[in-house]
Amino acid sequence: MPTVTEEIAYRTEIVFTKTALSISIDEPSPQIVKHREALRSFGAQNFQASTCIDEKWFNDNIPCRGTCPAGTNARGYVMAIAEGRYQEAYLLARQNNPFVATCGKVCGAPCETACQRGKVDEPVSIRALKDFAVLQDKLSHEEVYSWIRKRMGKVTLGRDSDFSRRGKSSLNDVPRVAVVGAGPAGLTAAHDLALMGYSVCAYESGSNPGGMPEKSLPRYRLDREAVKKDVDTILSLDRIDLAVGKKCGKDFTIDQLREEFDAVLIAVGLQKGRMLPIPGIEQEGVLSGLDFLMDVGTGHGLPMGKKAVIIGGGCVEVHGETLCKVVQGGKAIVMGGGCVATDVARALIRINKCKEVHLVCLEAAKGCRPDNPKEEMPAWVSDVVESIEEGIIFSTSWGPKRIIGENGKVKGLEVIKVKSVYDAQGRFNPIYIPGSERIIEASNILLSIGQAPDMSFMDGSSGFELDQRKMLKMDPLTLSTSKLGVFACGDILRPGLIINAVASGQLAAQSIHQYFGGTGTLGLAQPGPMESIPVPRRFERFLPRLKKERKLPALIPTKKRVKGWEAQECTYSESSAEGQAERCLNCNVSPVILPNANCILCGGCVDVCPPKCISMAYLQKADLDSTVDSKVDGYGPWAGLVHDEEKCIHCGLCSLRCPVDAISMIRFEEMLDVIGRKRC
Ligand SMILES: Cc1cc2nc3c(=O)[nH]c(=O)nc-3n(C[C@H](O)[C@H](O)[C@H](O)COP(=O)(O)OP(=O)(O)OC[C@H]3O[C@@H](n4cnc5c(N)ncnc54)[C@H](O)[C@@H]3O)c2cc1C
Ligand code: SF4
Ligand code: SF4
Ligand code: SF4
Q1: pLDDT of residue 299
Q2: Are 289 and 340 in contact (CB under 8 A)?
Q3: How far is the CA of 597 from the centre of ligand 4 (A)?
Q4: In degrees rounded to 5, what are phi and psi of residue 307?
Q5: What ipTM was estimated for this complex?
Q6: For the chain, what are the domain ranges?
């Protein structure tokens, strides 16, 4: 919670009056008048000096933007859609996220969790609106990059470090960077480095770039056209080369790259599924869920007919035979409750030979432990609901005890009821209920309990230091490894969402730029300069918006869904997209009491404010900063209005209620030279 003094520093709409709340409106005492004038003149001076209203603060506190790891201007593109400016919406969503089309389909959308509209009813469907904007895009790659280049910060290439040591100091030469792994993290870094002017070569062990979104995300959730659109736009940049089918640690080493390039970036992700040390794990029919998904994702598994036993391993090679093992017998159990687990379960249903799919997880079902949500399964609610619709049988609060087999082949899984998953200190420490064991029959057991790195990329190279977990030792600020000029980013550092990998790639590119001695940043995720636009009567416009309910694009019917890999989510029509975008509260519109306002401290705004974010506060003299103090003599306590911007839903009711028009609704809008703008 901010202190009162911080409130004062940031929220300049606070009015101070040396008075109690019960002031006489008609006849304020001469002392009250004097103090009001003094404070007003203080406010006016500061307002003219542009310090009174802290525009940066308003911009930084738009929750959808603030919570996006890559700083995407979600408000900007949502509002652009609401106003029918579709091309601009795409550009705003794309400007700092090269994986915009992919994220439009499957982003975990932390922006929606934080969305202010969620405090009224349900969040704006920001992710689905991004998907809509992407589908409206009719711009060429050149047009996209010409728009982006106009908004880039000024960057001066660095030629220090190894580069000058190697004597390539001619201005015509630019430092070259090798990127190992062409997933979201590696390609985002390549994109940003190329935009800055560096020369990049990305090496990918698989046959296609795109990382996990290309290799393992089920197609019913992520149409590969989306990944292709993103990758094609990135690779259209002049300075990026891509070599596919080249595996680091096998076809070449980091040390060799280090000889040839001025810096190396490792972005190899987490390519292995974790396995459990339980009895029977070695039997035929047990495999990692990630291997299975990669097999299905690459399309190699479906037509194959050979048998194979796959235990652990995984890497990025295609396990063509996996599928035959999975479907044999028609029954499978998926263990683990993260999203990968539901992906595996639903993919199993779709291969159309698995008649019964169980999902067993330690955690309780969603919503069953409101007292301790950590004890609930982490999978997204929508995934769980859709899985149940598709016939997946959930066994929540059950843990695996042993895998039962016959002649070395899986026959079933013995499970035991879970009492709790975490101990009082919040540590993972499952407690089981003895005597509750039961057996679920199955021909295959797939483990989806997390991912692990395949460290073979280090093979043939020396000088890497590892931490206690046997992971690369890193400087968290610069993303540099213990080897000079070698950096790392993405899931290999910390597993997360695609948008986390994008943000990590951005950081790595900036860090490599600084390593070369370059100056400036691309600045594409930075808030632009703002202008304030008075919006006189906010509430009238707000009310109709409030009546609109959140509606996600429809899903195709369950029966059709489970028959194949067709994209399950439809897209918004223009009218429904605009309607959904209009649900946005426009968190860049804020109530402000301007210096010439005549607040009488009646408390009307306090009474009507729906989320109770305006309060009357008594302040001690010590809470006021020295400038105020020097202008106002007298004694405390002082009464004033304190507005908590973080709770405000920007409805404008306070402005409507104020009997003396003291509160103005001000829209802080980024000044963008955008195409097709029709300002309303
Ligand atoms: C099944 C599944 C479902 C997911 N669902 C979602 C979702 O719905 N939403 C979401 O936001 N995130 C999701 N994620 C997470 C997301 O895919 C990752 O966070 C993201 O892809 C990480 O990006 P990355 O570039 O770090 O790694 P990756 O995407 O793994 O890319 C790494 C690349 O490096 C290549 N590589 C590996 N080793 C080598 C080597 N030695 N030499 C050369 N190349 C190499 C790999 O082939 C790969 O292309 C999911 C992940 C999985 C596994
Ligand atoms: S209401 Fe609109 S501006 Fe506010 S957080 Fe949600 S999407 Fe962003
Ligand atoms: S009444 Fe005013 S302060 Fe309260 S939520 Fe609405 S705009 Fe914000
Ligand atoms: S309603 Fe207007 S006059 Fe009354 S306390 Fe609020 S801002 Fe001041």
Answers
A1: 61
A2: yes
A3: 10
A4: -100, 150
A5: 0.96
A6: 170-271+453-515, 276-294+309-448
